[in-house]
Amino acid sequence: MRWSGRGAIVFIRAPVKNESMTVNVRSLETAVPTTKLIQSEARDVFAAQPGLSRLGSRLVNTCFDGAAIETRFTAVEELTTTGRSENPQFYDQETGLLLNPSTKVRNDIFAREATKLFVQASRAALEAAPELNLLDITHLVTVSCTGFFNPGPDYKVVRELGLSPAVQRYHLGFMGCYAAFPALRAAKLFCEADPNAVVLVVCAELCSLHVRTSNNPDTIMGSALFADGAAAAVVTGRPGAEETALLKLDHFETVLTPVGEDSMAWNIGDNGFEMVLGNYVPHIIDDHIVDALEPLLAREPELAALPYTAIPHWAIHPGGRSILDKVQSRLGLSDAQLVPARETLRDFGNMSSATVLFVLKHILEQPLREGDERICSMAFGPGLTVETGLFTKLRQLNGGPANPARLDNAG
């Protein structure tokens, strides 16, 4: 796909090998840190900071109250009103002040705490596929945009879980909220290239490491929205795997909108990573969401001919309430079709790349109506990038109970 000189979309499709092969998600599990943030309490802390201007104080209250979030989770225990630390780095309980640690301090915490979430989510996904041995995993794709270290999370997952040291490892770093889609697309391509492949995909984000007090509207919005969480999926096209599969990966597409490069960005600063989240982002999505969906639905002309509401499920990345509102309004979706996205936002906030997998899990846990059901999914990120996916929720949902002993005796 490219943009013509007049701004029109021109789609260029390369041939796809082995499209007839079915690739499924065998398991999908999530994990969050143990520390829960209550949105109203977090609002009061941020609103009480002495450096806020009158406008900044109003923005804090407006952004936190209007985010449609009730709870979030953080790997930084001292960010809660009950947390205690002898040497606080983020929040001083005694003075009520939010502190501003360096990027190194934040990243050191990421290396320690993100590893725990990567491993926890991976272990849960593998336990949910008890018919697979740990040594069956052939590929590992890890995803994060909230920190860096090396040997990285891909290495840590292999070592901590005892995967084969020959596992092919890939890390997608700093892509942002849409990165789960490139990870799943890569997993699908690996499976199409090797029918024996079993791919573990893991997203883990510690967005709360980068919160700070500020009068900047983008920073305030980020502090009101972002949270920590992880999700992992086991993907395979092995014969017989469909008997216990949850989800079929049908198609993926990527679209860059013609505007918005400066409206959503993620930069590295001296005191953490700095979010640029312009208030024009929902309007850009509103203007271009139909064009962004066109190449995905064109994969199945019979589906493209139907109204959007004919697709039962919509797994939309809840980048914020206003984004969900714009998508629902532009596509004419029902309130029920937005429930998975809105409830994920309400209960967990925006966990960047992991969030859309939480939404998909919400949909998978709903009772099936009749037969297989289609899911249209999308996520938005820097660029402005729109990633879309078309999936099938399978009628077979008897993945079986978790079997921890399988992990202990993998060799």
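Above is the first protein from milestone M3; the second protein from the same milestone is given next.
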Amino acid sequence: PRLTVPAGQGLTVNIINELPEPVSIVIPGQALPLALGATAPQVARNLDGRIRSFVHETPPPVGGVVGPAVSYIWAAIEPGTYLYHSGSHPAVQVQMGLYGAATKNAVEAAAGAPAEAYAGVLYDAEALLIYSEIDPALHTAVGGAIPTYGTAAYPSTFDYQPKYFLVNGVVGDSTAAAATVAPANRLLLRFVNAGLKEHAPQVLGSYVSAVAEDGKPYPYARQHASLLLAAGKALDAILVPAAPGNYPIFDGRFYRSNLPGVQGASYSFVSVATP
């Protein structure tokens, strides 16, 4: 789920783990989370000393009994758009779906006043677009009837070859608008890439003004016809549509999902209607 942190507040995530291996959570761009009562971030290591997790873990069930919730605490969260994901074995667990978006405004919207994503960056509406991928071979190797990940049959994600490309968890071309706004409204587009491939979102019919990446605002907005969204990257951009109509957003990398009837290019759109 999307984690929306109110302005001026921190964040606590309590994880109950029903999976067969340890999991955890990190938010790249933010300080590592603390364990309940901890004074410094902790890491988890394998028996050979190699780091298995960036932070303390939530262990799997023991003897079929699920353990208690484990807390991950951020005393403060900086305003911005972020990808959150498992900090344990991320090369596999992120691809298996343990990811989402976390957002926080500098100032919340109030009666007669728009929200501020960052200090001085105002917006009237927002749309969150999370790009991701699925490699069926990896999913079968990890979660199949006979797991083969880590064996000679499937030793690692080095040969990762996704066959499906998703926007907000959907493979097919979007039939519902990512957002509906009026002409001249300031639409905040929050782009997040949870995949291992880079994506290049493009808005047809208008430029966008990039205002921040990974929760860090630019000194000045940057006008673009397209954006480069590297793996694990989050970008914020403002779209101010001038006229009514649909403004398509597609992936300029032209990845095509392996499904009949899907045009590919990870398509979505913004609808602009006359008020």
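Note on the second protein: Helices lie at 90-93, 136-143.
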